[in-house]
Design a protein that fits this description.
With 197 residues, the protein is an alpha/beta fold. The protein contains five helices and seven strands. Bound molecules: inosine 5'-triphosphate. Keywords: Hydrolase, Magnesium, Metal-binding, Nucleotide metabolism, Nucleotide-binding.
Length: 197
């Protein structure tokens, strides 16, 4: 069965392709189906993910999976949070956002640089599904003082992953998927979907 992935973020789409490969579902990025972006005006990951999933399901007539995610830094009161994709302004690149974060944290001492990645996944069986499946994955770590590694996307180069004591960019895609916020949220979603069938 086809499943539309309600995202235009190539990093996320790559991770979903790998995470969903063993399943019966055929994930199709919304861009391939002509679905455009939607505003993400909300203050919660949950609301934004519902908006994205509903838009994609409505446009395609397919079940939809949306991911709203971000990095919450404790020393910054939870910023960039839901604004992670546009921390350095609308249309900012991953690199711009990461530089803005390092600058905002320049004076934050070691020992106070804790942060969490969050991923909220919303699965809609159809556009008007009254009971979406909503799953939340969390990944705690520490913000580095300079980028390390080439892999991943977004803030991965500055996120020190405590499980391996390396940056998220230095993990292989499989390793990251096993422990990340996205991997955890998707494992929870799969449990729920299995319980339904
Ligand atoms: P879509 O809405 O099209 O899915 P987006 O990039 O706008 O793409 P979000 O609003 O959910 O998505 O923003 C998430 C941002 O959080 C993303 O752009 C990254 O900067 C960051 N992020 C999320 N997951 C991440 C991960 O696994 N590694 C590094 N950064 C991540």
């Amino acid at each position: 069965e086809k499943l539309v992935i309600a995202s235009n973020n190539e990093g996320k789409i790559r991770e979903f392709a790998q995470l969903l490969a063993p399943l019966n579902l055929v994930p199709v990025p919304q861009g391939e189906l002509g679905v455009g972006e939607v505003e993400e005006p909300a203050v919660t990951f949950v609301e934004n993910a519902i908006l994205k999933a509903r838009h994609a399901a409505r446009e395609t007539g397919l079940p939809a999976l949306a991911d709203d995610s971000g990095l919450a830094v404790d020393a910054l009161g939870g910023a960039p949070g839901v604004r992670s994709a546009r921390y350095a302004g609308a249309g900012a690149s991953d690199r711009d956002n990461l530089d803005a974060l390092l600058e905002a944290m320049a004076d934050v001492p070691d020992g106070q640089r804790s942060a969490q990645f969050h991923c909220v996944l919303v699965y809609l069986r159809h556009a008007d599904d009254p009971t979406p499946i909503i799953c939340h994955g969390r990944w705690p770590g520490t913000i580095l003082r300079a980028p390390r590694g080439e892999g991943g996307f977004g803030y991965d180069p500055v996120f020190l992953c405590p499980e391996r004591n390396c940056s998220a960019s230095e993990l292989t895609r499989d390793e990251k998927n096993r422990i990340s916020h996205r991997g955890r949220a998707l494992a929870l979603l799969m449990e729920q979907l299995r319980a339904e069938t």
